[in-house]
Amino acid sequence: MNIELTSLHWVYLAFIVFVLITLIRRRDTTMVCIAGILVLALIATESLSGSVSGIFNSFIYATKELLGTIFIISIVVSMSRVMIRTGINEIMVAPLTRFMRTPALAFWGIGLIMMVSSFFFWPSPGVALIGAVLLPAAVRAGLPALGAAIAMNLFGHGIALSGDYIIQGAPKLTADAAGLPVSEVMNASVPLVIVMGAVTTAVAFWMMQRDRKKGTWRDGLVEGGATLASDANSIALPLRVKQWAAAIIPILFLLDVVAMFVFNLTGGDATALVGGTAILILVVLTLIAHRNQGIEEVTSYFIEGLQFGFKIFGPVIPIAAFFYLGDAAFTELLGSHLPEGSNGIVNDLGVALANTVPVNGVVGSITLTVTGAITGLDGSGFSGISLAGSVAQMFAAAIGSGAATLTALGQVAAIWVGGGTLIPWALIPAAAICGVSPFELARRNLKPVLIGLGVTTIAAMFLV
């Protein structure tokens, strides 16, 4: 069925291009997205007051859609803060350090531990949770500080964050933009995350070993490392209490994972389970650690976590607001209807593309990788994945299949580039905890990540 494209479609497409150009130039996209919402609302409502109101309403809509994601991340960060300050995190990971006896074991060990930790705590809090203990052990085993930073970075901000299977913040954003269930995008991302992670980490390790043997390795050390762990152990707790807490907390989250499988919990239900567990852990630990001041300190930890959450997702809201207009939210927000037979601006553009341009899985895969990588250039990894989901929806509509795979591919590319493995200002958590230059860390990551993206794109071509 042919859908007649209107000015709304062309304006929406033009602003997608503007957003991409802005990202390529490493400028902020907020103003472009606000302008896009205003122009679309003005065309749709033919009312200045209605279009101005549309900006605010779209922000409210986006915030409501993202609120669960913002809260779970904020709560996990709040919990991680009290764990760091009481030293519980040190007790939790200390038994694992005995396995780091060689540089190779230290690299893969610190990486895998970081990955598992990041699935539950997200990578930035995860760096703080384990870095203070694992880094000295890794260095003693002969692994350079920069090598430890690479491992923590690729496994945490790369593998764990690009899949995000426990907290589910990333797949929620891309799935919503693509109009797909979260579980479908998560399932489609599994082979892509495995390929990307295996290739990138293997290449990074091989390059490190090669350069160390050739004598061309540079540690990239800077003064003032381990800043994220500077307040660890600032609250005194009896050793026995810390040992019990360090044992019970992983068990509680493991039970959450078991419950997800047993009761088939995904999306918001899975997030709620992890969030509720984190809240209870935060409250109990705070009351134990702060005693009489515990009631007030719980609020302080919540505030600290929320500040982190909104700092991360502040740039996401206006971008998500714009891209939500490309789907079902258009009529709800602007009170205007698209042409008869329309399935949303993005779907209409996809159908039109299929009728005019020969599109296939190869072209779609390459385009989504490039789009995802470009959206990651702002350094957040999250602010542009709604765009990746929208573009995936367009190409899937044109191809007739592969929506989930293309969406997952755009998500993986965006987060590997912008989530903390290539953009220097996104590398600061791992670089700071290891005391190395974020620019040297980015330089070391560049070839492995680009090779990984190339191989993953080829893999996606066979899955679309």
From TrEMBL:
This is Transporter. The lineage of its organism: Bacteria, Bacillati, Bacillota, Bacilli, Bacillales. It comes from the Bacteria. The chain crosses the membrane at residues 6-24, 31-60, 66-84, 105-122, 188-208, 244-264, 270-289, 301-325, 362-382, 422-439, 446-463. Keywords: Membrane, Transmembrane, Transmembrane helix.
